[in-house]
Amino acid sequence: MSTLHIVSSLEQLSVALPFISNDDHLLLIQQAAYLALATHPKKTLLEKVNSYSFLDTDLVSRGLIQRYDSMAISMADLVELTARHSKSIHWG
Q1: Tens digit of pLDDT for each residue in 75-86?
Q2: Right CATH number for 3-91 from 3.30.1330.50, 3.40.50.970, 3.30.565.10, 3.40.1260.10?
Q3: What percentage of residues in the chain have a pLDDT greater than 90?
């Protein structure tokens, strides 16, 4: 059973990481979207996750979409991700 983990703040990523298994997916939204930046000091935390993406609207609102659009998903993709996973957890 896989889980969709939705993280909206950088502080909560460290809390969520121990609970993310190899079959899970991590979606970074809101302030956590800044982790799309290659130079972000916490970017290395994502190396511990097999599958992750960013919500496209959050990348757009932060001016990051043009450089990181290959990692972006739409709201329609989010609906599909939610249906594909047996449960979802939002980490504040």
Answers
A1: 999 999 999 999
A2: 3.40.1260.10
A3: 78
Degrees (nearest 5) of the Cα angle 92, 2, 67? 60
Q: Tell me: the pLDDT tens digits for 3-18?
A: 999 999 999 999 999 9
CB 18 within 8 A of CB 43: no
How do the domains of the chain map onto residue ranges?
A: 3-91
From 79, 78, 57, 77, select the one nearest 68 (Cα to Cα).
57
Q: How is residue 51 written in tokens? A: 């599958």
Q: How far apart are CA 58 and CA 64, in angstroms?
A: 8
Q: What are phi and psi of 37, to 5 degrees?
A: -70, 125
* CA dist., res. 14 & res. 58, Å (int): 20
Distance of CA 91 to the CA centre of its chain: 11
Inform me whether the pLDDT recorded for 56 exceeds 80. yes
